[in-house]
Write a structure and sequence with these properties.
Layout: E1 2-5, E2 9-14, E3 24-27, E4 29-33, E5 39-47, E6 50-57, H1 58-66, E7 71-76, E8 82-87, H2 95-104, E9 108-114, E10 120-125, H3 130-150, H4 153-166, H5 172-184, H6 188-202, H7 204-217, H8 227-244
Antiparallel strand pairs: 1-6, 2-4, 2-7, 3-8, 4-5, 5-6, 8-10, 9-10
Length: 245
């Protein structure tokens, strides 16, 4: 891992894209070493007044830009704990209100970048936004639950995706809310995929909590049995059915 002193760098861009389906993306900044245009750093963490991460050559950075796996940003000085937030058009909460609060908390670095399609990006100091970020997640989750109760499947999915992507951590309620919203939109495989991902990433206890949340969100449709158990049960029944026939 390479380290660059922050006072010897400038922000060059970020490993992110405007063209994606998720309403929110958090991305690593790419810093350029002042006086050495051929040295770049993809930030993975900040330690004291240094950024640590993966060093990139000028050729590697240009390749990421050409492949549209990264975006360039206006020249600015980096700050401790700064990351790029991409807030796309399908973000369920009012973006103007969100940006205003980011500015009021003096967490905005440089200017907000507006893309032609309507997506926006901003460099923020995340430590200053822990409280508001949690409140935005709660607000989006409340919106999703209300939309589910009202039978508005599309609005429920947009709000659930916003809450899930914006949350700094994966929670049982967030996964369950997103899975339930996908089911209401007829996307059973997508819903099951999130549930399997949660079990693989977080373990069986977490998966059990997700299923309990699903039951509360939708008691009639939610299953209290693990998905891998349901598949095994179906496989066990198949030979019996073949022998009976």
């Amino acid at each position: 891992m390479t380290a660059f002193p922050l006072d010897q760098t400038r922000v060059s861009g970020a490993v992110a894209t405007f063209d994606a389906a998720a309403p929110f993306q958090r991305a690593s900044l790419v810093l350029q070493r002042i006086g050495d245009g051929g040295r770049f750093l993809r930030v993975l963490r900040y330690v004291d007044e240094r950024a640590e991460g993966e060093e990139l050559s000028g050729m590697e950075w240009r390749a990421l830009l050409s492949a549209q796996q990264a975006i360039e940003l206006p020249d600015m000085a980096p700050r401790q704990g700064a990351w790029l937030w991409v807030i796309r058009q399908n973000f369920a909460l009012p973006r103007d209100t969100m940006i205003r609060e980011i500015q009021e908390r003096q967490a905005l670095v440089g200017d907000v970048v507006h893309e032609e399609s309507g997506n926006i990006a901003c460099v923020v100091v995340e430590a200053k936004l822990a409280g508001p970020r949690a409140a935005w997640v709660d607000e989006a989750a409340r919106m999703a639950r209300a939309a589910l109760r009202a039978g508005d499947a599309a609005k429920a999915l947009a709000a659930a995706e916003t809450a899930f992507n914006l949350d700094a951590r994966m929670t049982p309620h967030g996964v369950a809310l997103l899975a339930c919203a996908h089911r209401k939109n007829g996307k059973e495989q997508r819903a099951d995929g999130y549930l399997r991902m949660a079990e693989r990433s977080m373990g069986t206890t977490f998966a059990t909590e997700v299923r309990e949340e699903l039951v509360e969100l939708n008691p009639q449709a939610a299953s209290t049995r693990p998905f891998h158990q349901l598949r095994l049960a179906a496989l066990r029944k198949a030979p019996l059915m073949r022998r009976a026939s």
